[in-house]
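User: quick one, sequence for these tokens?
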């Protein structure tokens, strides 16, 4: 029984991680991805929902049949908190102290350095897989962000010829609690995305503001400025 319980917990954790990485996602898609029966996936989803770790979202435009919106699962705020770093509160208190003692400029300097370091860590993956189109660079950015713990994906939206836009989704944010109090971190991150992709991007939703995912709209119809190469990267998050 103990072994069965352990295996059950491991499977449930896989289900939770899949919702975190790929949500909003349906039960049928989860069952297929994890090779589980409909009854098994339902049992794990019900358990995770009862624990307050996931919730159902009905997404407009996605029907489950007979005109009913499809039921998609997303991770709740409590679910995100369960996988957040334990030092969030300490980080927030440190930034508050810096702001009180040294002013807003100290937080701005910290933010620029934070995003510049993220850019440096993303660099090898971006250089290797980036390519020359906005779409390919969006996918490379998503892959690199996932390696940093952001559970990111980049998918086409408003598809046409040529492709009109990509949508970058970040299902998890390692510094969500900090960014909620210091939104300039999100702004600097967005500016870094824009510089790398060579187009002006727009944030549609944010985990730091209570949404279930960070969503960034990336136009791909044309470049608004030259693409930045590795040796031209800005040292901070501001443009």
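Assistant:
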């Amino acid at each position: 029984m103990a072994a069965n319980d352990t295996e059950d917990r491991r499977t449930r954790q896989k289900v939770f991680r899949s919702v975190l990485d790929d949500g909003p996602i349906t039960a049928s898609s989860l069952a297929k991805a994890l090779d589980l029966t409909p009854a098994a996936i339902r049992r794990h989803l019900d358990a995770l929902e009862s624990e307050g770790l996931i919730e159902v979202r009905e997404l407009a435009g996605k029907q489950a049949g007979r005109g009913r919106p499809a039921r998609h699962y997303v991770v709740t705020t409590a679910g995100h908190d369960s996988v957040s770093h334990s030092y969030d509160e300490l980080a927030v208190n440190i930034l508050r102290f810096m702001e009180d003692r040294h002013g807003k400029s100290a937080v701005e300097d910290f933010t620029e350095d934070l995003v510049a370091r993220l850019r440096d860590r993303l660099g090898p993956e971006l250089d290797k897989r980036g390519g020359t189109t906005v779409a390919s660079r969006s996918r490379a950015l998503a892959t690199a962000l996932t390696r940093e713990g952001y559970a990111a994906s980049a998918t086409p939206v408003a598809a046409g010829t040529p492709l009109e836009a990509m949508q970058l989704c970040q299902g998890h944010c390692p510094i969500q609690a900090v960014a909620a109090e210091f939104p300039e971190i999100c702004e600097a991150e967005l500016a870094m995305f824009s510089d790398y992709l060579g187009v002006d991007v727009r944030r549609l939703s944010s985990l730091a503001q209570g949404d279930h995912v960070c969503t960034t709209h990336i136009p791909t119809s044309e470049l608004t400025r030259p693409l930045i190469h590795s040796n031209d990267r800005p040292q901070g998050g501001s443009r």
